[in-house]
Design brief:
InterPro entries: CAF1_poly(A)_ribonucleases, Nucleotide-bd_a/b_plait_sf, PARN_R3H, PolyA-riboNase_RNA-binding, R3H_dom, R3H_dom_sf, RBD_domain_sf, RNase_CAF1. The chain is α+β, with helices and mostly antiparallel strands. The chain is built from 18 helices and 18 strands.
Length: 679
Amino acid sequence: MEVTRQNFKDTLKTVCSAVEEADFLAIDGEFSGISDGPNVSALTNGLDTPEQRYAKLKKHSMDFLLFQFGLCTFKYDQEKSKYIIKPFNFYVFPKPFNRTSPDLKFICQSSSIDFLASQGFDFNKVFCNGIPYLNQDEEVQLREQSEERRNQQANGVGTPSFISPSSKGPAHVPEEHKDFINRVIGKVEALLTNSEKTLDLEPCTGFQRKLIYQTLNWKFSKGLHVETVETEKKERYIQVIKVDDEERKRREQQKREREQEELNDAVGFSRVIHAISKSGKLVVGHNMLLDVMHTIHQFYCPLPEDLQDFKEVTMCVFPRLLDTKLMASTQPFKEMITNTSLAELEKQVKEAPFKSPQVETAEGFHSYDTAQEQLHEAGYDAYITGLCFISMANYLGSFLTPPKAYISAHSKVVEPFFNKLFLMRIIDIPYLNLTGPDLQPKRDHVLFVTFPKEWKTSDLYQLFSAFGNIQVSWLDDTSAFVSLSQTDQVQIAVNTSRYAESYRIQTYAEYIKGKQQDKEKLGQTPKSWGEDGWLKPHYTSASTAATFGYHKGLRKRSISPAEGEQGGDAPITDGWSQYSFPDATGSKKMKLDDKSGHAEAIESKTSEGWLKTGDAPDPAGSSPPPEDEGSPEGNDAEGTVPWQQAPAVHGRKGQKKKKQQKPKGPEPTTSLFEVPEVW
């Protein structure tokens, strides 16, 4: 269903009803741009920390506008064994409520606008008929201003539009406006003596309208009702109506009610987000971090500076979120799904071993056909996001004993994916954990390098040419991360550069420590998670490091490890090998809201998978999980099934890695997570 300013009021009740009765909701947004500065590669640096990624998105993406919001509600019909869907496609635009309301400024990115235009996006519906909105602070401010005006009018110190300096004497009229005001007075006096009831004065300036209000309020204190009327072309004129005291009070009451209704209309689309939030339903999205950030920023409150504050705000607005891109990139799906972009994911989950969900569009709603792709229409994208979630969730049911064909959005089977948002291109921190500490990879193989602005990527490759394959991740014009293939070469590189004049090399740990010290100097202390057993890892935002002058005549040097010091046969095959954890046990835990009162221990991602129970990964590299010899495969005493992960070894570019065997002995089951029976 397409929703614009014209039909929003009539549709709002239908939207709220659909949200309340739904089992889960799927959302998607279309924006006027993505980044106002860095390109997408720099905006999504592969070695960002969660705090750095959040800070960059907040700084470079929030001045764009979310101007199309897709919502699709899914309700399971037990009798028909199919989902009943209600898709909505909202066009959103921040039209000012009045002259005192926020006049929002936003930016557009030409590539984004060009792309949406190529997909048939109708910008006229946004700018001409977009639904207005106010965030909570703006709504409170406008309601207070409205209440203040009413109080002034009740006390006789103001008029419906302007406050008169004095109601006891005539208003001061500048000489150049006296003829104009005298003509108005003449017309009003004629109105009082003839049979006409209404007089529409000619459109005039705001200052002239103020003079008219002040003069008529002084000269004709009774028998008239005066108000400003605005035409469709935004022209304003004054309407004078003959009334008795009772009629005047009635009209003033009607005007106050109309102002309240207009203010409610100005809140606009934010009421939809309030309804979603109030429902507490599971909200599903695909690669949804930007969608969540924009939704909170536009319709609730400006985003906080601190990542922990953002997490808390997000959990207040959306208590349960699920990201299908993260789900598709996690065991047991990652081995079967080769492309996690939304369009490709929708195609892959139609094929075995998945099954296409049975859906039916509710009466009165537009029916989408996936054979005729309408990608980048927010309502359609929300719809296929929901389909992908259903297919993957139902596939998890095949691991249960006995297998179940239908898995609800409330099932514990999907709980491990709750409140974790996919982080693009960060290999060793694949998600932002909204309800617990984020992963803390050690990154012992990473160096922080500062250098002259003139340097290019080729200069860095030349500098580290003796260290084999490297990966460069630029931070800004004068700094970058360089990932080495072997950890034992890191200190050699640092020592070799100790006396260099044009560049500086630090370990990743030194870089993080320096950022923490800089933050503490600014008076920002790390926040804790309280007394619930969680400590928040302290991340700092990326900032430009000190630059070093490029010495004239100094050649760019290549640094080499000293002879006999290069040894070591433990290359870093990926970013999953080593972690530091905030608790003393050496393992990272994530909370699961288990109604039975216990929390499952779930480790951070290893090279075999992103969400995993069991022991910490082998620091020497990846190894396949040992088989559980104490129980038959696929079954246990509690009626649950551990998902055994296929051994997956991912080497860095140009390198191969031999599988390493762990010594045999009693070890806990290394499954992805335990899958309880459906509620």
